[in-house]
Amino acid sequence: MTSPPRAELAAGWATALAAAQDVPGGRADELTAALDDLRARARAAEPATAAGAALVAAGYGTAECLRVTVDLLGPALLDEAGPGAFSALAGFTAGFAEAVRDAVVAEQAEVRSTLVRARHEAELARDAGLAHFDGLFSAAPLGMVISTPDRRVVLANDALSDMLEHPRGTIAGDLLDLVHPEEREHLRTRYAELASGEFDRVDERHTRLVTGEGEPVWVRLTATAVHPADGGPARHVTAVENVTDLHLLERKISFEGTHDPLTGLLNRSAFATRLQEALETGADKAVLHLVLDDFAVINSGIGPAAGERLLADVAARLEQLLADLDAVLARTGTEEFAVLLPRAEAGGELVERINDALAEPTWLDGHGVAASASVAVVLRPAPGTAAADLLAATAIALRDLRATGKRQWCLVDAEEDRGRRARSRLAAGMPGAWETGALSLAYEPVWQVPGPDLRRARVLLRWDHPTEGVLDDARCRALLADTGLAVPLARWALHHAADQLAGHVPPYLELTAEQASDPDLVGPVRAALAAAEGLSLGFPVEALCDYDMPAEDNLRVLTDLGVRTVLTGFGRTRGDLACLEDLHFDAVSLDPTVVARVAAAPEGSLFPRAVRDLVALVREAGYAVVVGGVADQAQLDWWVAVGANRACGPLLGTSVPGSELPGRD
């Protein structure tokens, strides 16, 4: 939604106010100035107190004026300024209320002054003075009541009778009979203080009276003591303004600032506040952070409206499940919920009950869909844990958990969390390292074996970290999965490797699954191929083992361009033989875990025998076999014996800058 232009919004506001309150004379300039201030405060997320007061000063001081203002300007401000609108509107209502209160006080003071003056002038013209006071008292738009110091009602005007739904002229007895039971003791004390002279005024901005039917009415109440000049008995003059609409608006604004509009649950900010309070009172708590599996499939497959209905249904089921547990439930993200339990022992057993409750199908547009959730659980968080840190830990755990499957759950371990956080900190620093040059390229020689020929230079990432030291290619690649740098880094690596190795040895870059599926991969590869003849690219099995994968299209096009291709991750992931049979490659590269397991296996064990047969099968089909991580001569001899014909690793040369590769002048 787009906010209406300033002039259109100001005109609409003026029209709505005119319908709510008849104010003589033009007020366009005052309203435009107030609107400009309100919008500026909303963008700055600051209270627009002055704008609220300006509305009252312009003559629009009724609850209806405030209501139409919030209804009209609220959506426009939210669209224009986002959450900052809540702060601005809260300040606006506060300023409005304060200005109305001041007006009430001033009017009450005028009544008091009139009463005193009338009584004084009564010595000369009693009848005229009383007529003036009675007219002002009766015609006052506020509820007015005169009472004795012991709270006996002497006179109440029609406005008060109408407000409290009493027949006119029937309000009598103890003034406290008009007060809500929960407010009576407090107001009894305040009126006693007024009668004793301890205070000269009672001013209650939010209190409750009751109607003749016992319904609560929120009011602003101001009372003062009047002492007649002729020495007659003192009287208390009380002015009452009905602020029920204002009170409800304030509660609505407060609710919207702390609750999710779709489900009615607490939002993330409010949950974090409740969680922090709970953490400060003791550690015997449990926190469950859950994310719905496959919500995106439902949202895109059936439609966003169906997705919203599913979220509302999930919220209702969770509320029902947690009803007897004194739990705090919140929606903390698009498809995320969080639960705070007062007893840690209830945390683990609740996970299965949650998924059982969600498993019952929900019918959406004729489709019976069932939700499931992956859940991260924290039991008895350590003393001093901050709510933000705890939620960050569960979010990281959930991300790792979802990679293992659906309907999973895990306990968030403090030691594991420290490791996850350390990894996340490193990942967050990769863009800066790339920008400053701390992230660079190194090259590992790939040799023809058993002959001495240098066949390729394997392109590796290297990060000279200021505190962690040198991070090798394997660690850099693991961190790339947590960033958005994988694709641009591959393009950068292609360009720089081709430039640094031009005229020497062809570069060989093993792509990640994300990089292999880059829809724009062909362009950078074409440019690199022009600079570095014999370029080789590794395509991982995991990116090719499903049908209609973008990586397969890239592989076919690049093969046609003359790029030499290698199937990487061979021997570990399902589908590797199918890929080898269905697609064209020049070589296969055995997965590092296969090489490591062969090295550690006892002589004569099953795994090395299976690998020997696999290598023989691949070589028989006409493919070269690349083995990495070769650390000693015995390893190299074994692999050469079973048929591997290309190798790299510590025995054959460590990674070096391009200028230090063997045979480079």
From TrEMBL:
Stored CDD domains: EAL (cd01948), GGDEF (cd01949), PAS (cd00130)
Domain EAL: 423-665
Domain PAS residue range list: 129-198
PROSITE patterns linked: EAL, GGDEF, PAS
Membrane-spanning parts: none
Species for this entry: Actinokineospora bangkokensis
SMART domains found in the cross-reference section: EAL (SM00052), GGDEF (SM00267), PAS (SM00091)
Species classification: Bacteria, Bacillati, Actinomycetota, Actinomycetes, Pseudonocardiales
Name the UniProt record assigns to this protein: GGDEF domain-containing protein
Domain GGDEF: 283-414
Domain of life of the source: Bacteria
